[in-house]
């Protein structure tokens, strides 16, 4: 379910930054990612991926 969340985040960002290039959108999404979540107890693969926080868009 990451794809719909990332696409929604990109759409929110583009709504407020209509001239942003794809690279700028990618950078914004990556910057909005947080590693502040419960880990590793709830992540079986042991890799702490970033979780998108689209609240700032």
Tell me briefly what this model is.
The protein has 57 residues and is mostly helical. The protein is built from 2 helices and 2 strands; from the N terminus they run ααββ. Helices cover 44% and strands 7% of the residues.
The profile of the biggest β sheet is: 2 strands, antiparallel
Q: How many strand elements?
A: 2
Could you estimate the helical fraction of the residues in percent? Answer: 40-55%
Spatial separation of the terminal alpha carbons: 20 Å
Structural class: mainly alpha
Task: Specify Rg, calculated over alpha carbons.
Answer: 13 Å
Count helical runs.
2
N-to-C order of helices and strands: HHEE
Q: What's the rounded overall pLDDT mean?
A: 87
Proportion of residues in β-strands: 5-15%
Q: Which blocks of ≥5 consecutive residues have pLDDT under 50?
A: none
Q: Please indicate the count of domains.
A: 1
What best-fitting shape do the alpha-carbon axes yield? Answer: elongated
- Strand sequence of the main sheet, in spatial order? 1-2
Can you walk me through this structure?
- The protein has 57 residues and is mostly helical.
- It has one domain (2-56).
- Helices cover 44% and strands 7% of the residues.
- The chain has two helices and two strands; from the N terminus they run H-H-E-E.
- It has helices at 2-16, 22-31, and strands at 33-34, 51-52.
Keywords:
single chain; 57 residues; mainly alpha; two-stranded antiparallel sheet; 2 strands; 44% helix; 7% strand; elongated
Helices and strands, with pairings:
Blueprint: H1 2-16, H2 22-31, E1 33-34, E2 51-52
Antiparallel strand pairs: 1-2
Helix pairs in contact: 1-2
């Amino acid at each position: 379910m990451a794809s719909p969340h990332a696409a929604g985040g990109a759409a929110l960002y583009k709504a407020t930054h209509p001239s942003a290039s794809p690279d700028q959108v990618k950078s914004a999404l990556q910057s909005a990612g947080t590693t502040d979540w419960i880990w590793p107890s709830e992540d079986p693969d042991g890799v702490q991926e970033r979780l998108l926080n689209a609240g700032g868009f």
